[in-house]
Amino acid sequence: MAEDLVAEIEALEDKLAQAKASITSRFIGQERVVDLTLSALLCGGHALLIGLPGLGKTRLVETLSTVMGLDGSRVQFTPDLMPSDILGSEVLETGADGSRAFKFIEGPIFCQLLMADEINRASPRTQSALLQAMQEKVVTVGGATRRLEAPFHVLATQNPIEQEGTYPLPEAQLDRFLVQIDVAYPDRDTEKDILLATTGTEEAEAHQVFDGASLIAAQRLLRRMPVGDAVVEMILDLVRAFRPDDPSASDRVRDTVAWGPGPRAAQALMMTVRARALLQGRLAPSPEDVIDMAKPVLVHRMALTFSARARGEDLGRIIDENTGALLRTEAAA
């Protein structure tokens, strides 16, 4: 059984390497972003991509849809977007014999990969329409519950809250995203490569590597990947250390963090460290995987106190400081 599992994991690693190569041929120089997005899909979760306009977020999602072989839909979120524009609605139809009946018209959410573009530009009412779909993989319209096709993933893009015309996502919806992915400006050499690759007569084309069934199989295999006791304990130590009312929390966390991550964050870390190990060609996750995935998994599941915000504190920096201290403690032990 162990030998079969190793062979399956190694075969999946080769397939993931092909998928990653196809994606990076079109989404250039953002390997970290690609790894985190693939990790979200492997874990069966959703990802929130945050960055300024024009950094390639939409291009990444479109490329993923092709490479992963998923039926994709795109919704441009705007302030006047209504929940029915996403979920669908019932319309009254008149038959040839004059009879009338309601017919449900599916919205764009009935797909396998939904791109929610600029999700924080829609009203809170419309944002909340995604909650049930993201968590339970069903939607309820007109009193009837309809199941979404598996696999189902939401990759949402978001402009920074500082920009005008945006609505901050509520904590309940943020917690539905497995990871938050920050898309930064490329460095000079990368930007040069992007210019040369995208302004000529031809562009690299993505090719399909997975399909819906093989992605589901990969997600099941990921859950079978063994995780050592030391890594499990480190995940628990890390998550609990960011809860200000926990005895293990540092004075800095108590002074800056209003509330910390819940059990769902520990579950997300448990899954994403496996995905990172897979993408790096390893058979089991290590403590370094926990440290690397801490910020993407935790940063949107925590909040600063009012005084910490006034001082200009940054959650990402606090996470880096505490994870680094934890790694040093683990190494010393």
From TrEMBL:
Annotated transmembrane regions: none
Statement: the UniProt record of this protein carries the keyword Nucleotide-binding: yes
Key words of the record: ATP-binding, Nucleotide-binding
Ranges of residues in domain AAA+ ATPase: 43-187
Record organism: Allosediminivita pacifica
Keyword flag Cytoplasm: no
Record family assignment: Belongs to the MoxR family.
GO molecular function, one term: ATP hydrolysis activity
PANTHER family in alphabetical order: MAGNESIUM-CHELATASE SUBUNIT CHLD, MOXR FAMILY PROTEIN
Superkingdom of the source species: Bacteria
Protein name: MoxR-like ATPase
Pfam short name (any one): AAA_lid_2
